[in-house]
Amino acid sequence: MKLKLWQRVFLWIAKRILSLRYAIEVKGLDRAIKKKLKDESGILFLPNHPAEIDPVILYTILMKHFNPRPLVVEHFYYMSGMHFFMRIVKAFPIPEVKTTANQWKVKSVEKAFDTLKKGIEQGENFMIYPSGHLKKAGYEVIGGNSFIHRLIHECPDVKIVLIRTTGLWGSCFSRAITGQVPPFWEVFMTGAKVLFKNWIFFAPKRKVLVEVEIDPQGFPRQGTRLEINKYLEKWYNAYPTEEGYELTEEPLKLVSYKRNAEVYPEITYFAEEEKQEKKTTTARQVELSSVLKKAITEKIAELADLSPGKIKEESALASDLGLDSLDVANIYTFLDTEYGVRNIQTERLNTVLDVMIAAAGGFEKEEKEEKGSDSGWPKEEDRPRAERPDGKTLQEAFLRVCERLEKYSACADANTAVIPYKKMKLAALVLSQKIRQYPGKYIGIMLPSSVGTYITIFACLLAGKIPAMLNWTVGLRSLGYAAELLKLQVILSSSKFLNKVDSLDLGDLDKLIVTLEDVKHGLSLKDKLKGLRLSWKKTKGLLRRLELDTAIREDDPAVVLFTSGTETFPKAVPLSHKNILENQKAAFPSISIETEDVFYGVLPPFHSFGFSVTGLFPILSGVKVFYAPDPTNVKGMAKDVFNWKVSIFCCAPSFFKNLFVVATTQQLKSVR
């Protein structure tokens, strides 16, 4: 397999960088190469997963002869700074299925599976981690994962290559240090500092052994899911020692940060384990009724395709019953819909008894400690006062406030640091370059209240499009009607949001979905530079450059909202620029807004009040706003108000009623 020049350069650089910190020994690769030269059919590489760095190591080994495409979980695939590398290796994403299993996730998994199956049939090579996650201890656990079993059964001719990496358990890229998935770039930078402190070429090296075995003897190709998974676990958990025998659990291996001194990372994993054990033993004592036991048993039996009589309370969901992550996610959904149980730690449900205890309310997710009294807003003593929105169109009003409050804070949310108006303007302009290319007059937007949502709305407007705010809670029938009514060809959403929504069924509308993560990764340097140049222009010149000075009038529709459609099909309600801005300008004198005020925008943007008042108004008038996605999460709202010093809080009476039940006086003290 001939690599392109830039791929060879990348491979050479990656190998040289890795060699500074790792002494890598490879066994069995020659046999796999010879087999590949004789047979051009697709190969399925199945490695164990001890650390975040092992995919990089494996790729430098396999790229020259096999160039396999890796299957990557979405949160890593879309991680900031990763897209360049994902593009080089032609990776493709798959959602992480833990606690939700909506139709979007199921279809995304099916798309990934179809890509794999078709690629294997065409002779492509792929690399997939059977466990689906970093190992949590010295041994690999695959449990009931069904993906590999299904793929092998539907692609019976695929060649299988097992890979076992030994020596990385104890690396800062592994979970051995803290017990948690390490932040990749933070650990990468720590490693870079270690190299520089050791004059780059003299850092202590970690010995890593990579063993490759093609078509392993005794592999149960025709076996059940559990038979295949147990074979893989046994093969992975056979770690060679220098003495020549094998261990079933990889020993912890630490490598000093300094060449001539014993300097190691602090291990906090065992303290975390004790903390988890303490939490487990302090689960509330609950009564398990026979009715509850029967319902849980029948549900698990249905998922495991077994008779209820074979389900025992002590049965492990994965290793005994063969349930995979999708099945366990269905159990979480079942507990939510049938018993109203939501706040369960993601790793609580291991046995049938655990599910019964959870259904009875025995497990509660630990509440995070509240932050101190200082909010995340930077101090801005010279911040100008808020003013009525200035402009005849939303585009003009947005650009004018960005010009007036350029360096001052605009908004924030739980996933986005505080961004100033200058950065918000730049982001909207860059994104508008892509949105301008989409077909159709209307662009569907299906997102909760967040910084990214309102940047997307302004980007649509700056692209000369009309945003159509879609309500994902109304069901497929109403969503489909809304899309058909406006002849939508694109619906902007987010993978992170779609993966979290319970019971989401988009039907054929999923073909119209374009995720913001994909849009972001599709932005070229040219797009970004063009957006940067545009952001330097003053409002009048920018409107003229974007052809928005004469093409958009104040009486033109600025947005399309929809009625709920509970009894019939939803009705489209277009709101003009003049309608929105005149209402905001008229309301402004009635509100005594101070420079230090903070709005709380929690109502969804498909709601007229949420879109105009808690969404756009604070941005256009120059008031700081903190966005939150869920008005039913009353505990979360109480914490947001406390942590971000919210002073202006507009919401529906029913949500306030629920909030007052759980919030303390201290939490709501900042609200005026």
How many beta-strand runs?
A: 20
Distance between the termini: 67 Å
Low-confidence region ranges: 271-283, 366-374
Question: Which band does the percent of strand residues land in?
Answer: 5-15%
CATH class of the largest domain: Alpha Beta
Rg over C-alpha atoms, rounded to the nearest angstrom = 28 Å
pLDDT averaged residue by residue? 88
Based on the coordinates given, report the CATH architecture of the largest domain. Answer: 3-Layer(aba) Sandwich
How many domains?
3
Task: Kindly name the structural category.
Answer: alpha/beta
| Tally of DSSP helical segments | 25
Order of adjacent strands in the largest pleated sheet: 1-7-6-2-5-3-4
Helix content: 40-55%
CATH topology of the largest domain: Glycerol-3-phosphate (1)-acyltransferase
Largest sheet: 7 strands, mixed
Q: Shape from CA axes? A: globular
Task: Describe the fold and architecture.
It is globular and about 80 Å long. The model is unreliable at 271-283 and 366-374 (pLDDT under 50). It folds into three domains: 5-247, 3-Layer(aba) Sandwich (Glycerol-3-phosphate (1)-acyltransferase), CATH 3.40.1130; 283-359, ACP-like (Non-ribosomal Peptide Synthetase Peptidyl Carrier Protein, Chain A, Orthogonal Bundle), CATH 1.10.1200.10; 394-630, Rossmann fold, CATH 3.40.50. Helix 15 (421-435) crosses helix 16 (451-462). The chain is built from 25 helices and 20 strands. A hairpin with a 2-residue loop joins strand 10 and strand 11 (416-420). The strands form five sheets. A seven-stranded mixed β-sheet has the order 1-7-6-2-5-3-4, with helices on both faces. A five-stranded mixed β-sheet has the order 11-10-19-18-20. A four-stranded parallel β-sheet has the order 13-12-14-15. By secondary structure, it is of the alpha/beta class.
